[in-house]
Amino acid sequence: MNILIVKLSAIGDVIHTLPSAAALRELYPDTHITWVVEEASSDLLAGHPSLDRVLISKRRKWLRELVNPQRAGLAFHEIREFLKTLRDRPYDLVIDFHGLFKSALIVFLSGGRRRLGYDSMQELSGLFLNDKIPEDMNKHAVDRYLDFLRHLGAKVGEPQFHVPVDEENKRKVDSLLERRAAIGRDECFVAISPAALWDTKLWDKEKFAKLCDRLIAELNLKLVLTGARADGMLQRIEKSMTRPVANLGGLTTLRDLAYLFGRASLLITTDSGPMHIAAAVGTPVVALFGPTSPSRTGPYGRGHTIIRKDLECSPCFLKKCELLTCMKEITVEEVFQAVKNELSRSEARDLAGSLQK
Questions:
Q1: Is 145 exposed, middle or buried (0-12, 13-18, 19+ CB in 10 A)?
Q2: Strand-pair partners of 54
Q3: Within 10 A of 183 (CB to CB), how many other CB atoms are there?
Q4: Interval 169-209: pLDDT, tens
Q5: pLDDT at res. 232
Q6: CB of 54 within 8 A of CB of 46?
Q7: 3-class DSSP assignment, residue 292
Q8: What is the pTM of this model?
Q9: Domains of the chain by range and CATH?
């Protein structure tokens, strides 16, 4: 039996689909499972124990190159090779976890016999399916995706997240923390991920800087900033601070982050992919929410703190907003207190765990 998973992006969405991949492997232990994913999130799947193969779609790159006469030929060649590999197995089951035209097209081109997805016509994705289930938007994304497994007859238990982290990731991150932040292997620290893909999810950089200064001065915490090198927000936060902070922007892969967050006592973050990575590896999260819904896409599991304002307009799910009231009304003080409280709870949990041993 051959199964194809189609979940292309983004980081958080791929994380949310991991329990479904694990449940598929448990339901069909002897089947061959392939996952098609886009480049940006592919690092999360390399070497995953539930998968036999990961196919990487370079869709964004191909679209750029197809309009470039000097690169179009190479793009066509790569697309042909991708489609050839995609169709080299007769898929008995293809699951479209994405539900958009870009994923539906891959479902169609795969030639799969049973094509399962949501009963939705979003971007005409439903036209490519022959087996459909309703999508319950009142559920968290993790549980919505697991509805596919329930439909297939699986007895779904506690969702199992697994992000493959190897020894190289560990050595790299341990070295970075030692050299850049003077954080030893057994020392505690708090990670901060201030970036987000939507402008409406961002918290003011000056507030982040003031929060960091307070955490260092009043709680004597070691802090580590994480994010992409191209994201200037990390540099702006660092420059606005009065105290030194370790900035690892652009120095970590997604699997590096998984290990780094696993070592951290806590992650302070906006609604973003790193938030979901931290939750997946079991690290407590203090998450700042504005235009989106924590019940749908918040950090999954127990032990997390959500900070959001109960406004009539929120959640609006808008990527652009002139007011940004939902994020502007979040204060440094309430985030500081949330971090302080969460760290106290974590210490209590660690003490209880050591006593049980």
A1: buried
A2: 35
A3: 20
A4: 999 999 999 999 999 998 999 999 999 999 999 999 999 99
A5: 86
A6: yes
A7: coil
A8: 0.94
A9: 2-151 (3.40.50.2000), 168-356 (3.40.50.2000)
